[in-house]
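EI: anyone free to look at a 525-residue chain?
SC: sure, send it
EI:
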Amino acid sequence: MGGSSAAWAVEGTADSVSSIKNVIILIPDGMANDATALARWYKGSALTLDSMASGMVRTHSADAPIADSAPAGTAFATGHKSHTGYVGVLPDKATMPGLQPIAPGDAKKPVASILEASRLAGKATGIIATSEIMHATPADFSAHYPDRKNYDALSKQQVYNGMDVVLGGGSSYLEPAGRKDGENLLSSIKALGYDYVTTPAAMKASTSGKLWGMFAPAGMSYDMDRDPAKQPSLAEMTAKAIEVLSKDEDGFFLMVEGSKVDWAAHANDPIGIISDVLAFDAAVKTAVDFAKKDTQTVVVAVTDHQNGGLTIGNAATSGTYDKEPLSAFIGPLKKAKLTGEGLESKLNANRTNIKAVMQQYFGITDLTTEEVAAIKDASPGSLNYTVGPMISKRSGIGWTTGGHTGGDVVLYTYAPNNDRPFGVIDNTDVAKYMARVLNLDLDSVSKQLFVPAKQAFAAKGATYKLDLTDAKNPKILVTKGTAKLELQIYKNIALLNGQKTVLDGVIVYNGVEAFVPQDAVDLIQ
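SC: here you go
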């Protein structure tokens, strides 16, 4: 049950299959199936996604039927199931039906992502997210650690993993004050030759082949709340990334996440859902428009899991569901001018203007005494959790949970040669499909990038020491004869007798053991 069962619809010749140079995967994190229907009704016309639907995807992780974003994204990125909270590494247990047990010694071992394999094949690579870029899904494609909360380890790998474009939020986690290790990764980014930008204007004006844009200290705003002078849209970031990456004659790989669809679903906030599903769909249109002109690009759009149990119709419509007009559901939603998160800045310090703000920005004029009290008492940063359910109640929108759900999700694809997956496939098959069309071998790349360091250097007769005493610079020290090798953990840097070498990939420590690229091992003769 857990293995690959992918089916492919193929029209065209073998030559047309091999002519694909680029893949763009777009992930609307946590997007429930009813979310696209709701966004479509709200928009009043079809979504770009609608014409691309080609199948369904099973979303379970190695250890649970309902997946967390970390293993769900790992499946898309690497082709391997993983454990709750694990980023870009194998699980320590595989308990779901149909899965093979983890081989001895393989627990928590890093495995190559489609992004890393693309980079080693000479392609340009990039990631985009509206969350902080070291959040689970973007990290799944660009870093490795069995704890999605270890932003220090994940972000340092991202900085040193050789990507050409990084756009999104999360600048505070690159600054010394926002890190446990105190390292200044902003200075590292600039030293590595990136054009570091913080505004939409600077992003658009950049002519660099290496672009790093940070547009918020943590997550970016919902699209409906966004100040276009301060933050670019997801479509604008996608267009800029394609502009930069498509200059590489070898092709490119790009991952784009509409991160906050998931955050809105956790809050049961339908306005946030609509805001960012429509923003995501605009980014898909940007990608597909490019792909149709380019004729060598595959576009995949698929969520990692559903969230919230969103339904058009709730308990209150049980007896009237087939008599409710569309306006009963969409009318109240259309009155909202901001998401629940965006409302917070409109409330005064003492929150004495709640009724006026809710009327002006949410179109709600019948707040109960209890609802006013709930808004007044809401913690900073959590107002969407309070007002989301209020507008849901008034618009017949149902929710079953504040967490993820375990159903299958829709797979949307575009391929110029119509070589596309169909039927119900596994989330790991998404990675396998992308690797196949780009002619990449993920297993061989894993063997090249993630050699168990202690064993490899011992086999060469060298002395190996894992030195974690300096949080800013954890390292591996290897000596053999007169050769002294320092390998900087979470970076792609080796120093052999003081002479610097840039390695094929980052050095990964998973909390138990370290893994190094083969070219690091080859430095010891």
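EI: The radius of gyration is 24 Å.
SC: 👍
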